[in-house]
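fyi for ur records
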Amino acid sequence: MTTTSLPPSLIPTLSGEHYTDPEIFALEQERIFEAMWFCVSRSSELARPGQFRTYQVGRESVLVSRSRDGSVKGFLNICRHRGAKLCTEESGEVKRAFQCPYHAWTYGLDGKLVAAPNLTSMPDIDRVQYGLINVHIREWLGYVWVCLADAPPSFEETVIGDVVSRLGDTESIENYGIDDLQVGRRITYDVKANWKLIIENFMECYHCATIHPELTEVLPEFADGYAAQYYVGHGAEFGDEVQGFTVDGSEGLDRIPGVAEGQDRRYYAITVQPQVFINLVPDHVIFHRMYPMAEDRTVVECDWLYLPHVVESGKDVSRSVELFHRVNQQDFDACERTQPGMSSRAYVKGGVLVPSEHHIGAFHTWVQEKLGTASAH
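which gave:
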């Protein structure tokens, strides 16, 4: 952090090395991404037994799959024999088991070792003990969340707690019935920037009037520079002439029935640490999941979720998708412009946060506490 004295209006940021140093990123992988609940797949993508998806979580490849009993299982995507990657594709489906492409060790959908060449001649091999390594699994909001920690933190206090701290209760998000919505569009962005720059950008709206003309037309209060998520329970209200959360302010799609009267014509933004953004509007939900891949690269997967009949009937969702797709592009372009500056001698001691960004300081403190470097303030 910057050590020079600052006027009362400004507070310091993290120093540039926090966005560029591979050693700091490795520590984040270990103490944040591998230690906390991390959101991966939409549950509906694992509809049938044997359907699977693989994800990078911290330093590990993780395999999630639907088992025969209908539950979702999660494993480290590593063969117990010689450490080869078990599933090499990002997604797919197996009939009965996962087979390592190296020596054909084979695992059931429950992770148990079920076959291997000459296994019968090794009766001392415990098929459970030498099965796949399990990771903890929760399903919430229609998504699968994994945790690699031996003893995961409380899901209620961390993931659900982040939502409650923003909205004031769980009922407010339950009104949107996110579990039952369907993906109308998914866009994946490969962002050449550190994951923290993306979170910091999402947390503040000081930049909104500068780079988000379409968004501030729909949400005029964003032009004032204060992010809606700064206030508990507050949703940014649509402009008077705005009919829906669309790129041109035209009418949206069918409203989600559970949305309360006080939530109508409002936009809510939620950050669930360390890698989820949830955006709520009356007719759809926009759900971002970040996958930090390197100190200067982050993959962001963004789902636009609608009522099932909207998706199944083939209704045109392009105007509602286009609004936040442009916001994403504008934000990620800004983050990519910022990333090179993190290596500049001008940012060795960091930058500053103005009053409307001061809440980002709490995020910086949280990161440093997780890394065990809070004394660096």
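The first strand starts at residue 11 and ends at 12. thats all i got for now
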